[in-house]
């Protein structure tokens, strides 16, 4: 799974380089999670998961508090949670998750991005079956064997544990996201190098050189769309 972890790292680094944009997206995601459930993360697993992810991106407390207070205040602003699936250059596969208050705008922007860079928007299910929904949690200061023992004692099931780039990366089912983190917290580990709910491709492809630039542009344009929260793909960019 090392290559998959590298793609997650590259995506995270890209987001870290665009703080204002990513902070705004987290603000919306936090607001939606708080509005749909309790504004208290201890009583709202979905909100807790978003806040844990936000922490790994150093989202300022002011943005988090503002989003939660907006939800508490009974704001009538509503967002639809959408997933788009499409094909990029040379049969590459892309999944886009969005939160939007204007569905027509979002689908138009996503479709235009695919068209501009040699791809096309697919129907629901055309791509997602080639990806696995996965919780990815990373920590430092432990070995893989120590993490395995810790999680076994907590009776938490995981798919895989790898030592990669000085960190231990845990891959688990999405419904184990909070359980893995809670096991770490009980063991005194409260800082995570990564805490993501992601879509990992079952197989990655390598694009021909002339397709790499348009593919990267497609991903950049999609990630820059104001309604798009996450973009996943199956391309090994080899970076």
Automatic annotation (TrEMBL):
Domain TACO1/YebC-like second and third: 79-235
Subcellular location(s) of the protein: Cytoplasm
Keyword Ribonucleoprotein included in the entry's annotation: no
Major site of localization recorded for this protein: cytoplasm
Pfam families associated with the record: TACO1_YebC_N (PF20772), Transcrip_reg (PF01709)
Gene3D superfamilies named among the record's database cross-references: 1.10.10.200, 3.30.70.980
Residues in coiled coil: none
Alphabetical keyword list: Cytoplasm, DNA-binding, Transcription, Transcription regulation
GO MF term list: DNA binding
Domain named TACO1/YebC-like N-terminal: residues: 3-74
InterPro entries reported in the protein's UniProt record: Integrase-like_N, TACO1_YebC-like_2nd/3rd_dom, TACO1_YebC_N, Transcrip_reg_TACO1-like, Transcrip_reg_TACO1-like_dom3, Transcrip_reg_TACO1_YeeN, YebC-like
Family membership noted in the UniProt record: Belongs to the TACO1 family. YeeN subfamily.
Protein name per UniProt: Probable transcriptional regulatory protein LSG31_21350
Organism, scientific name: Fodinisporobacter ferrooxydans
